[in-house]
Amino acid sequence: MNPRHHPSADVLAAYAAGTLEPGFGLVVGAHVEQCAVCRASTAAFEAASGEALSALPQADVAADALTRVMSRLDVAPAPAPAIDKRPLMERLPLGKRKWIAPGVWVAAVQTPHAQDNRVYLLSVAPGMPTARHEHTGAEFCTVLKGAFRDESGLYAAGDFAATDEDVDHLPVVEGDEDCICLFATEGRLKPKGLLGRLAFAYADV
Ligand SMILES: [Zn+2]
Asked: Is the C or the N end of the chain the one with fewer CB within 10 Å?
């Protein structure tokens, strides 16, 4: 799989530095996991920040070094965690699926997030409108399954999309399978249309 839509360099740098809010980091990670190009960029950012750290003055290192060496003596190396190879969708801590229309469901992702932010999966069957909404902040989205098309092109599994506030667009599911996307949305949602209101008010995501 070769995703065609990637996070910006700024977003990848923040992801590598661990400074994105967890839900937003999760959405970027869902793309990076599928994208060799962005994995390489992330590794480069991590290496660069490591070099920046090692270039800092070393004044406190010596005083602290013995303590750290001593503390390592008794510690057995931690076993490498088993790699979970299930698809991301099966690994996410999901709340209950809530059907908001025939062929459309949402499920909250149980991850820490700011009170006004939302992290959720949205699944839309072919031929159904997506939950149209505006929002007051950024929105990140990674396609986990299926595909959608909007005015900026086709987004298939692995593709990443970021939109700024007050974008009002209406993606349409492409192809003949359900489109499942992982979203992190910042700020208060402003649902539009009946389905949007149902998705974000009734379903409480
Ligand atoms: Zn990428």
From this structure: N
